[in-house]
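Slide 14.
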Amino acid sequence: MATVAQKLITAEEFMRMPDPPDGSTQELVRGEVVTMPPPQGKHGVCCSNVNYLVKHHVKSRRLGHVTSNDAGFVSERGPDTVRGPDVAYYSYDRIPHVPDGYFPVAPNLAIEVVSPNDPHSRIQEKVRHYLGHGVATVWVIDPQLRIVTVYRANATFQTLDDTESLDGEAVLPGFSCRVAELFEEM
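Slide 15: predicted structure.
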C-alpha cells in the first residue's frame, strides 16, 4: 500500500493560517501543525500570575520584552519549527525590537505551565527542544503539584515547592518571588 507524504509547511505559511475556531493552540513542529486543546482555568490564572510578575520586573528595569499567549519563535528551518511558550522573556540584547511576525530567535527564558491533560513526555520534549535551540533557562510550573522545576542549558535542574523562592539567576537578573505567588487565586 502506498502512503502519501504530508506536505510540510513553512513558518511563514503557518503564520498566515487562521486561528482555530475552537480556541485550541497550535505549534509548527518540523513542518507539521500540532494542535493542543484550549487551556483550562487554573492554567490561565497561573499564566496571568507569572506574566504579571515577570513583566513587572522586566519593565521596571527596562530589560527586554515579555510575551504571553504562546507567542511564537522560529527554532528550526528546513523543515520549520515554531514554538510558543506560555510566557517568555527576551532581553533587549537578544532582540531589541518586537518583530511583526514570529520572533527569529529563542527567548532567554521560556515558561511552560502544565495543564492537567499535558502528558509528562510532551512537556519534557518541549524543555529539551527549548534548551537545544538556544533558550538559557526553562521554568516548568505545575499548578496541581504547586511546584516549579527550573531547567538550565548546562543540564542542571532544580525543583522548588510553594514554600521556597524562585530566583531569576543570570537569565533574569534581580528577579525573585515566592513560588506560592504563582498560584494565588487558585
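Speaker note: The longest helix spans residues 41-61.
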